[in-house]
Description:
Low-confidence stretches: 261-292
Order of helices and strands: HHEEHHHHHHHHHHHHHHHH
Largest sheet: 2 strands, antiparallel
Strand order of the largest sheet: 1-2
Radius of gyration: 22 Å
Amino acid sequence: MLPPVDLLALLGPVLLVVVGALVTLVTEPFLLRKDKHAFLPWIGVSFLAMAGVALHFAPPGEFGGMFALDAWRGALMGALFLVAAIGLAALQQNLRSDDFPGGEPYVLILLATVGVALMLMASHFIALFLGMEIASLAIYPMVGLRRDHKGSEEAVLKYFSLGAVFSAVFLLGVAMIYGATGSLNFASVLIGPRLGIFLLGYALVTVGLLFKLGVVPFHFWSPDAYAGAPSGVVSFMAGAVKLGAVAVLANLWSSHFFGFALLYTGQTVPGVHYPPAPLGVSYPLLGVGAFPEKILVLRAWQFVFVYGGLASVVIGSLALLGQTSIRRMMAYSGVANAGFMALALGIFVKHADARYALFYVVVYALGTTGVLATLSALSGRGDLQDDMTALAGAGRKRPLMGLALSILLASVAGLPFTAGFVAKFQLLAALFTDGRIGIDALGLILPQAMVKQAGILFPLVPVVALVCALVSVAGYFRLVVAVWSEPGTRSKEVEAPSLLLSATLVLAMLAVLALAIQPRAIGF
């Protein structure tokens, strides 16, 4: 059971990041132009480090039904702070190369970190929306940071306009949930016969979060946003936003079933604080009581996560093969990996086990953030060398960057001896073990006779996911070969990475290698 704690103890780590953003903002006008990019990132990383220490000592508990902190949320927030530190270092490399006149982007990354951290801790829809909007409003201007860069205007327009639309969809869903329950807590009880409104509200909320995750068909913004934004911004955005989206989807889903169990059984689960329900605790729908809507609800959400995830894996894995721009390739890689996360959430829906989804998103966030951070050093001024031919031989000129890119990209691809391999292996093994995941959900669109025939066939979902995972390796392999090949005629001189970038990338490499050896080290 999560005990009530005071606000300062619970939100201490987040408040330290807020203080870091304010200190960075106040310090920026007093520094010379050449000194801003030398000192401001270090201020941000220092406060992130202090926030990490405070997080280690923060007591588990909840405050007013709005925010909660337990071991699961703490592990995700620790990963978020490391992702933010890598993003700051990558942005420093970008802004220094571009001779950017101001230091405000460092403040924006810290504020976006605060927003995602609030998303991770939220147990109330108002708190969740506050975190989502703080993160979004800080990321929007960073996507359009290079106003004279080709594609920057298109990137920020697509990301901002679609983000506004899906925020409105999310709020409409929240309003429906409030109308059905009279509460904005994640776990709430229906008022009378309002199940239809409640389920439609949850569906709209889920759609708004699937946009953040980048699952098909809500992925169209990501290639253009990634290609138009500086690689340092993309580095942070790719990891942090997916951390927040997966954590919220898992928390919402578990709390959703706690509410149903209370309605139909009047029971709470011993040892579980209500609300909010800690992530990772099996919700009672599958073991406590039964109700008529159980099968319908399970099938509906399995259909969304399993088949939306499968479509994302297929489209993302095939689309990344033909890309020459590294950022666009990593955008489609994000779509494919968002599909794997959705499949892991499908397992969560069916078996009440969030480990696969949460471990996968942590490993993916560290890997993809590090890959894009190396690009900030290798692609030069304005990210003009953002294609494989221009990066030919870059690893030979800067061995540390080449090594970091190779190891972290191997983790994103799911190759052995990295944490990415462990995450993909665990997920695929769970899918093969289940064998029937997604088949029952076909009952929503197919006659029952056809559903029975589908059950006789081989387990299609894990087979397709495995084949696509192997196919996508070819796209990643092209990049690694290019980086370590002989320099070509289009190859240019590679800038020396900053000390901060080198240090954070070493931490990222050590993290993905250590988690391969001891995947339970972060509590999943």
